Amino acid sequence: MRQNEVLEVLESVASDQWGIITTAQAQREGITRLQLSRLADKGVLARSRHGIYLLPSAQHGALTDLRTAWVSLGAREFPDERWESEDKILVSHESAALIHQVGDLIPRRITFSSTTRKQTSQEDIYIYSNREINSKDIRNVDGLPVTSVELTVSDLAEKKIEFNYLATMVVDALRKENVRMKDLATKLNDAAESYGFSSGQQLVQECQREAASDDDREESIARYASLAEIARESLGAQMVTDLLKNNLYGSLPTASLAEIARESLGAQMVTDLLKNNLYGSLPTASLAEIARESLNQVSSKASPKSSEYQTNKKSEDIKKRQPPGYSPTPIDDEEELQADTGKTAKKENEA
């Protein structure tokens, strides 16, 4: 059999298998290991796993490794034969969550569930063996047998993943078409106690409260940013103060609060806000930044090193030396102040 004929046979039998072929499958079609090896050496085929090859028509993507892993666990059978068999190997747990796009768990290994006892020496694959899985909980996702969304979430809850991860997964699952809250809650009944709840329904409700969607969160941030911009550009300082006092911004990001305070409020107003703790739980770092940037004008005027402070002090000293009833003219007062200032400057130069 010529090379192009071998390739035609391989492409034909692997058309329903994402362009993936195994050595055992090829041998069933009369193609030897040596022929496969030669095609691989020429770059026509790509070696993926032991005894697994990718054809030129192979579908490359995020699920390629997962597909080749599934094929490798039933290397002799073709997909239609495996689907008809009672002994099934399904994508499950973290890998199923990845396929269904629920949650944000990153699988450390490719995870499968088998209805019989199944083992593998492949280190990147983990198999949950001897599982009883109802046919109603099996989904065909582009040719791959995958546990349903409800069972996938339940499986991971049984593993006692962290609650925040589970909450995100539950919220994502409920957005999926044909996933009903009642069905999901029923699946979670057994795992609910592990999280401190009496029922799956209670667990689902708490997950909904815990996990806000990323879209909603981004929308809130954008909305609050717009409010901050309006406050800075359109509102007077007193109105901004009132807004902060009444906490009308709700969960306005603290960075925006700090920016409003610095740009819209006077230094004294910021002082009052800080004294009365009107920022609530504003982080101390933000408070420090507000204090440094907004109160700098007040502190600089009160500093003994500032020229304004020294001039005012000189004026007060001169007034103390005047006799009772003395009312200096502006010129006298200015001349005496200049003279006194000159003496001070001379002493400083001599020193």
UniProtKB/TrEMBL annotation:
Biased composition regions of type Basic and acidic residues, renumbered to the chain: 311-320
Positions of the AbiEi antitoxin N-terminal domain: 10-56
Signal peptide stretch: none
Regions of compositional bias (Polar residues) in chain numbering: 295-310
Region described as Disordered: 295-351
Domain of life of the source: Bacteria
InterPro entries xref list: AbiEi_N
Protein name in UniProt: AbiEi antitoxin N-terminal domain-containing protein
